[in-house]
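User: quick one, fold this
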Amino acid sequence: MAREIAEKSAGHIVSITNTETLYHGLHNPVIERHIRTADFSLCDGVGVVVAGWAWGHSVKRVTGPHLQLAASNYGQSRKWRHFFYGGKDGVAQQMAERLTARYPELIVCGTYSPPFKALSPEEDQAIVDRINATQPDIVWVGLGLPKQETWIQEHLGRVNAPWMIGVGAAFDYHAGTVPWAPPFFQAVGLEWAFRLAREPRLRGRRYGRSLIFVVRAGLEGLLKLRFLRPAFAAATHPPRPGGSAATSSG
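Assistant:
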């Protein structure tokens, strides 16, 4: 990320990918394109880890809220400029104030919470002009899944920022308007249980989609013995004489 910001290379995205994102990616070509074409696709849920294991992959978790904190801290000495787009009225500004208190050299070049309505082309262009005028390095988008991913895809080539990243609930967590799961729940991948206990009706429907993806992906990987993939690769592709072991494709 630092390289692209230093070079002022616009049009890069990070996909914060959880099991619900993957579910939508299987049914929505825009979300699929968002995941596949992202410069980085980061695992945002333990369900992705489970599904990855079933297919023979070891997936490291990097959640959206943690990425935002890391970038806020790392970018202080590098004068990175952050724009916060999304959240309910006032949440983006509240998040900016709290993060600035935590990282005194953080540069928040602008915030905007869009109205909950369909925007006209003129209104949308006015927002793009407003963002571009601040010359951001990272535009953090908090519109919720899949709206934020769709917004990013629709504004590639229009928003002049090196990076756009949809982080959803991170806006509420960092603004303090919604409690973030305690560190223990985060460490063991049980943020979903904490959220479900707090918002059973809202989270129940969303986590139902996640469960569908995990079960389908997991069963398919297990039935095809894909979880043995590393062992198969080592057995069928022994080390080449004088070289490293060949890796399996696909």
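User: anything notable?
Assistant: Residues 200-223 form the longest helix (24 residues).
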